[in-house]
Amino acid sequence: MVKSASQGISVGCGVRVVAGERTGYAYTDNLAPERILHAARTAALIASGPAKTPVVSLEDVRLKDKARPSLYPIADAASDAELAQKIDLVFRADKAARAYDPRIKEVRAGYADEVRRILVIGSDGTFAEDVQPLSRMSVFVIARDGALSAKGSSGGGGRNKFEIFLTEKTPEHFATEAARQAVLQLNAVACPAGDMEVVLGPGWPGVLLHEAIGHGLEADFNRKKTSAFSGLLGKRVASDKCTVVDNGTLHERRGSLNVDDEGNATGNTMLIEKGILKGYMADKLSARLMGLPNTGNGRRESYQHIPMPRMTNTYMLSGDDAPEDIIRSVKRGLYAVNFSGGQVDITNGKFVFAASEAYLIEDGKITAPVKDATLIGNGPDVLTRVSMVGNDLRLDEGIGTCGKDGQSVPVGVGIPTLKIDRMTVGGTGSEG
Amino acid sequence: MVTQVKTAKEDLRELATAVVKRAMELGATAAEAVAREGSEFSVVVRMDEVETLKEAGARALGVRVFVGQQAASTSTSDLSPQGVEQLVGGALELARVTSADPMGGLPPAELLGQIPGELALYFDDVYSLSNEERIAQARRAERAALACDSRLVNSDGGSFDASVGSKVLANSHGFVGQYRSSYCSITAAPIASDKAGSMQRDYWYSAARSLAKLDPPEEVGRIAAQRTLRRLGARKIKTRKAPIVFDRQTSASLLDHIFDAVNGDAIYRHASFLAGRLGQKVFGANLTVIDDGTTPGGFGTRPFDGEGVPTRRTTVIENGELKSYLLNSYTAKKLNLATTGNASRGLAGTPGIGNGNFFVQPGEKSQEEIIAGVKQGLLVTEFLGFGVNMVTGDFSRGASGLWIENGELAYPVEEITVAGNLAEMFGNLAEIGSDLIWRGSLACPTLRIEGMTIAGE
């Protein structure tokens, strides 16, 4: 049954005043001119004197607002579809998950969409508008067999038209995937513990890049020299098989944006090229203070939040190895294909990510599925242990949300099949 | 500048009751509205300079409507007459497309009400400082931290935050409840660097409902410095099984998993390893867990829950036996039980389950005594990641801490994971400390757990 339906509207204006390295911020959810002016005065309390830079007139900047083709549909975004159609998706997912296997006992399927309209105006001449659609399906299931229980989850979407849920990313696709995981996990064995070879499957396991190196390459941490990657520009941080980019310009992707939340066009930024650290992801403030290019990575959760450098879609480019050869090369290790998320300590570089679907590799063959386990590593050196890179780059299905300083933003990740020669696997089973 | 929060009390009450009335006029058979307003202030000082200063206020409104057994909810920050009309109209329109759910509905009128007495949730002193004084609080915390040791060379800053909020809940049974709450905190997050240039960061904070109850910034800075310095030179250890001591920060995080496991929403969906175990011995006989939403001044205290049911004290686990789940009226009906007054309500969506002041009954020994009793083991002081499967209870999280050798802290440890199963972990509590200290709405003393796997080299 359709258990709940809800919708919300949030409107507001945030004013940021920057003086040197200092930022004053205030916001209001009331768009009356006097309230916005009050917010501006509050934010300006940070400034010690009158502005030293001239303010560009709005009339001049409006003319400069050059149109470029949008990365995502605006007129016919998913949110414009009929409510009945959206509800049908959820019913179909429920049915497909239960039909997959009689052991599927609980199904929770959801659909959500939003449209975010932004207008950014700055005293430096910034004038940018954007309409950013976003939609996502999610399916969570529980399988039970006697005393055994297991869960599975799946989902995806993007800044797409509604049709994508009727063609490529159907409810049956997500439901079957969630059900498959749950049934598989019913028979999972204890995951081994200790250092071992790890092969990551393509796609969503790219969350490794997001945690291990992505956050550490956000310019704010490097400006403050609080990142384990501080001062490593031009140095080797990965094996020469690794090339990693952050690309906000992919068509209809969850992490993509026409302009960032400071009004700058997003870009395709080289982070690591053949193992060498090439760049950081910057916002206006970091770019100015560090003398680096502004890469269009200034993002914020909403008008209530101060922008900061954030990732968009972060992924590793394909290499030369066939995925089968990668598996075959492992004597005893772990093949991890699904993850439930991760976290990083920027300063010491330690990161974790939790595998929700993984298998043992024994003598070059994938064998038993193992229970949930956390993998832990050190950001600045984990990629130096990448010895094989598959020719099968895949991006995730459009499910990722990244949290930093209490702000959540949608992101994308991706990798080809990867072999890491040594990583610590945190299971309860015998030593690996 | 000192900013006073608007105390537009009547205004919020009027808004919420007007929304309920309007929903009933437009055809709802029952309705419930939430109105909230709040102000927040925060300042971060980094390397002695003000880095960010933020100040704002916001108001918002949410409504949940029932048309027979169909329900839906909407929320808005547009409080204009048109915005409110759209809010109510939208909810009714949405309700007509949801399925009839016989378990839905407001709690019966006779269950509604609020606990009496002064709950000490609001103190106007959190907003009594001038901006200069607020900046000084943050600056003093950071300075105190960095002054502790020459290895403290960098910082993620010191901060001071203050917020006040007011919330009204009204429904078509005639319930109208309102309360105000306040919060303030000071933090410090210094960064230490050793000779080899490897860095460690840690932090400490003090939080309170009243400025008068905050620890001095110097105390916050000093503890943050100690916590950071003791991580320098951390190493990995070999994969093994060993006794693990969890300090109050990490034991509270473990207790949070127990809250998730007794959450009625997870129980009726069989998404918890404790589903169907009511009345059974599920943990060790030394474990008693209580949820109390009524303690004056507590971070988890409220006069009524998210559905207008009075909060109460519930014994969840008594001597290892599962005595009660935590429920709202929906999950209670699903399980054929009575609500425990644990409904939590955001602006939109159906009510979830929230804890009151949720804690483990303390034992006899201090943390020092517990550590002294460990020949070889690990003191875990931080978790990294969220690797917990509530369906099976399987637990595997990144960790750092200090190795214990012959009852004494020997050296810092990092880049390891600790793994086990929550049912076995709480079934094997070798020690429960006496050090129950409230720093949030969840509190747990130091715990010593046997039989977990530490994964390292």
Oligomeric description of these chains: heterodimer
Shape of chain A: globular
Rg of chain A over CA atoms, rounded to whole Å, is 23 Å
The averaged pLDDT of chain A comes out at: 92
Number of β-strand runs of chain A:
23
Summed up, the helix count of chain A is 9
Radius of gyration of chain B: 24 Å
Distance between the termini of chain B: 55 Å
> What's the domain count of chain A?
3
SS content category of chain B: alpha+beta
- Ends apart, CA distance between termini of chain A: 45 Å
Structural class of chain A: alpha+beta
| Largest sheet properties of chain A | 6 strands, mixed
Question: What count of structural domains of chain B?
Answer: 2
| Strand residue percentage of chain B | 35-45%
- Low-pLDDT segments, ≥5 res of chain A: none
**Arrangement of strands in the largest sheet of chain A:** 10-9-8-13-22-19
Biggest beta sheet attributes of chain B: 9 strands, mixed
Query: Helix content range of the residues of chain A, please?
Result: 10-25%
Can you characterise this structure?
- The complex is a heterodimer of chains A (432) and B (457).
- In chain A, 19% of the residues lie in helices and 37% in strands.
- By secondary structure, chain A is α+β, with helices and mostly antiparallel strands.
- Chain A folds into three domains: 1-52, no CATH class; 78-185, PmbA/TldD superfamily (PmbA/TldD fold), CATH 3.30.2290.10; 193-426, no CATH class.
- Chain A has a six-stranded mixed sheet, covered by helices on one side. A five-stranded mixed beta barrel of chain A has the order 7-14-15-17-23. In chain A, strands 4-5-6 form a three-stranded antiparallel sheet.
- In chain A, helix 3 runs parallel beside helix 4 (171-185).
- The longest helix of chain A is centred in the N-terminal third of the chain and has 18 residues, at 83-100.
- Chain B has nine helices and 23 strands.
- In chain B, the strands form four sheets. In chain B, strands 8, 9, 16, 17, 18, 19, 20, 22 and 23 form a nine-stranded mixed sheet that branches.
- Chain B has helices at residues 9-25, 81-95, 131-146, 217-229, 248-262, 264-268, 329-335, 367-372, 422-427, and strands at 30-46, 49-67, 70-76, 152-171, 176-193, 199-201, 204-208, 240-241, 244-246, 289-292, 313-318, 321-322, 343-344, 352-353, 357-360, 376-384, 388-389, 394-405, 408-421, 429-432, 442-443, 447-449, 453-455.
- In chain B, a hairpin with a 4-residue loop joins strand 17 and strand 18.
- Chain B folds into two domains: 9-228, PmbA/TldD fold, CATH 3.30.2290; 234-457, no CATH class.
- In chain B, 22% of the residues lie in helices and 36% in strands.
